[in-house]
Each structure stands twice: as C-alpha cells, then as structure tokens.
Amino acid sequence: MTALWTAAEAAEATGGQARGDWTASGVSIDTRTLAQGDLFVALTVARDGHDFVAQALERGAAAALVSRIPEGVPEGAPLLLVDDVQTALEALGRAARARTKARVVAITGSVGKTSTKEMMRAVLAGEGRTHAAEASYNNHWGVPLTLARMPRDTDFAVIEIGMNHPGEIAPLARMARPHVALITTVAPAHLEAFENIEGIAREKAAIFEGLEPGGTAVINGDLAVSPLLRETARRHGARIISFGEKAMNHHRLLEARVGQGATVGEARLWRTRVMLKVSAEGRHFAVNALAVLAAARALEADRARALCALAAWSPPSGRGARETVVIDPARDDESIELLDDAFNANPASLAAALEVLAAAEPFDGVGRFKRGRRIAILGDMLELGAGEAQLHADVAQAPAMAKVATVHCVGPLMAHLWEALPEAKRGRRVDTVEALLPEVSRLVDTGDVVLVKGSKSSHVSRVVDAIRKLGQRSAARETEV
C-alpha cells in the first residue's frame, strides 16, 4: 500500500488529534465507493457522514476524519479528531498542494469544464504522472478532496473549479495555486445568483487570484466579456494566451468539419498551422482543444504528443456520451443513436448540443416509421434567474432546431419552449420525468438519433436509462455535446 497520509502527517496538516498509528492510501467521502485503506472524511453534505463512520471502518477504512466520536465506533478505533470536518478537509488539500512539485492547471467556465479537464488530463498523461478528479468534483468540498487525494510525486494536476454563487471561485483557486488558469467560456448560467453576464465573468475571472507568480491565463478571446477577463488577468500579473475563432486570438480555429464520431479541422497556434482532431462531434470541442493546447504550451508539454492525445480523446460518459443502442442484434441497422447529455444544461450548452444533433444522420428504411428522425428530449435548465422562462422559449429559435423533427419537453420551465415551438415539432410535454418514462418505447424508433439533455436535477438521465433498456448497447462512441 502506497502511503498518501500517515496519522502524523494528517494531524499536522489539520491541527487535529490522531488516535492510533495508521496510514491511509486514499481519501473517501462515500462508503459506497470507499476502498480499503482510505481515510473516510465524515462530511455533512446531504447527510451527516458521522452516521457512516462505523460502516466505513468495517469496510476497511484506515481511519475516519471526524469532529466527534460517533455512536457505534469501538474504543481505540483509528480516528483523526478535528474541530470541523470541512475546514480540516480544506487544510488537508492545502497541505497536499504544498508538498508536491506538480505543475497545476485550474479550469473553470460556464460550459465545457469537465470535458476540457478530461482533454487536459489526456494530454498531460503523456508527459508525466497526472492527477485529476474522476468525477466533476469542482465545489467547496470537491476541490479540497481532489487536492487531498493528490500523490506527493504527481507531475501534473488538473483541477476543475465551479460555482453557483459569487465569491466561490477565488478561495478554491487560492487553494489550488495553479500555474495555469483556463476559462472555457462565459455564458448565461447561474443567473439566479448574478445580476448579469458581466457578474458571471467577474466571478469566473476570480480564478486568476490563485495564480502562482509568473502564471499563465488562458482565456476565450471571442466573448463580449473577453476584455474584462484580460484586464483581470493582467491585474494579477498573468501572461495571457487567448483562443477562439477570431483573428486576434493566439490560438485560432480556422476551419472545422463535424463528422460521424469526430471533429477535424485546421488551426493556427501562434504562427504554426496544424491539423486538429478530437474524437467527438461538435465545433465547440475543437475550440476547447485549442485552450488545452495553449495550457499545454505554457507547461512546456510536447505539442506533437498533445495533438495525438487529443485525436484519441473522447469525453466522459454521462455528459454527452454518444452510443448505439442495438434493438435487434441480428441487424446492424436496427438501432438508435443516443446522445446522452443529461447532467448539465444552460442555453449555450443546449445550443451546442442541438448543433450536434442537427449534424447527425438518421437512418431510413427501418422501424415503424421507415424514416429516421432527429429527436430531442429536453429537461429544464435550472438556476437561470428571472429571465428563465424567456431563455427556455428562445431555444425554439436556435438555427439547429430546423433539422429537429420532434421535441419532447420535461419540466415546468421547458413548457415555455414547447409553447414557442411550431406545432409540427411539439412532442410530449410533461411536468416530471416519471410521466414520460412509460412512453419512451413509442417516442423513439430504430433509425432515430435521440438527444437527451437537461440539468442534472431534472432527472432526464432516467430517460437515457430507459432508452438503453430498449436494446443492447454497442461499442460506444462518447461525445459531450
């Protein structure tokens, strides 16, 4: 077992009292995924983690980080007793960051954080030992948890930082202390907590507050708020590399062609013209790949290896996974193409998803209708503030909507889109996903391409599961949209 934390190290980092002489090989906050040898952190998030300490120890946890000794925990059990568990986890994260010589990239943005993090991971994995969260751990407990899990011999770390309210990004950025800070884009998301798009931009730009001296800011240069991002980066002494499609960007996408399972194009990286490929459908993936190449350049990574890593990359499941659901294993054409983007939604990401759907090719001559269709099953976009009704209705005007045959709407907010759609495109409109699930088998057919997208708490991921159950999942092509 490789030691991540000894009892003495963890006690020193947190100012806590270690009981027992233990060594932890990992850090966990969930008994369902806890591995033997993990330090179990009894956070109080949805439930009080202290209620699960005894279970964690029974399952092989090396010790538990607690603020009190829970009932059912035997005397002499290995513990790290602290005043506050969340504060202690943050201290553990800061200590892990301080003891490593790793070069750190921090990533934020309204859209594309997770996929860009995974691109960055793929690129840096060819350069050395690379650490990044397996999931989208980007909040007040996710960032310190990711840092606390970082092995001391890490060469590169990729930290995703998100927010829901003002003032969240800066302390997490200061904890991560990145050498490179990257902002994918700024778009209407979490408007419920911000007055306008400029407020969102200022919060995203707070990531530069954590930059190490001489650090690099990688910013999207195509935005109306790009000057605000640049000015904030300059104020924090950052070297700036811009990316996008406009002529003044340092890394510029010249051309992109979206095909089946990939996006291929040409780009200019400073004065060097390159061919660019990502194994994902969507022009936005190619743009974010330029951001990754810019960050890799700042870390002195090999450009040729980076381009090869991007060509082989496909995004994480659950955030736009593209897969073929085979209805009849005896016939390759008896299948449904499924675009699963059921964990996140805002107007910008939904527009990008619809573009991918519009570019996909249905298959004719099979199924009940003998004509393949492009179908969208959309759940509510949440946290959009006072203008949320209009933002949902405006989706009807997206250019890509012209190629969508039918839109099924889930949730009270998506009802505004349903009302704005031409009658010919209106599918089912329901308030809850439970009302739609019994109808899935008749709403989709072989030959169709089906996009399922919505904010995570709209629960449209259950529609994805229902479609998968209609057949057998083939070798997956996964694409975040």
UniProtKB/TrEMBL annotation:
GO MF: ATP binding; UDP-N-acetylmuramoyl-tripeptide-D-alanyl-D-alanine ligase activity; UDP-N-acetylmuramoylalanyl-D-glutamyl-2,6-diaminopimelate-D-alanyl-D-alanine ligase activity
Segments forming domain Mur ligase C-terminal: 334-455
Binding residues annotated for ATP, in chain numbering: G109, S110, V111, G112, K113, T114, S115
Taxonomic superkingdom: Bacteria
Cited InterPro entries: Mur-like_cat_sf, Mur_ligase_C, Mur_ligase_C_dom_sf, Mur_ligase_cen, Mur_ligase_N, MurCDEF_CellWall_CoF430Synth, MurE/MurF_N, UDP-N-AcMur_synth
Catalytic activity: D-alanyl-D-alanine + UDP-N-acetyl-alpha-D-muramoyl-L-alanyl-gamma-D-glutamyl-meso-2,6-diaminopimelate + ATP = UDP-N-acetyl-alpha-D-muramoyl-L-alanyl-gamma-D-glutamyl-meso-2,6-diaminopimeloyl-D-alanyl-D-alanine + ADP + phosphate + H(+)
SUPFAM superfamilies from the UniProt entry: MurD-like peptide ligases, catalytic domain, MurD-like peptide ligases, peptide-binding domain, MurE/MurF N-terminal domain
Enzyme class label: ligase
Record keyword Nuclease present: no
Keyword annotations of the record: ATP-binding, Cell cycle, Cell division, Cell shape, Cell wall biogenesis/degradation, Cytoplasm, Ligase, Nucleotide-binding, Peptidoglycan synthesis
Pfam families in alphabetical order: Mur_ligase, Mur_ligase_C, Mur_ligase_M
This protein's pathway: Cell wall biogenesis; peptidoglycan biosynthesis
Family: Belongs to the MurCDEF family. MurF subfamily.
HAMAP family linked: MurF
Function: Involved in cell wall formation. Catalyzes the final step in the synthesis of UDP-N-acetylmuramoyl-pentapeptide, the precursor of murein.
UniProt-recorded name of the protein: UDP-N-acetylmuramoyl-tripeptide--D-alanyl-D-alanine ligase
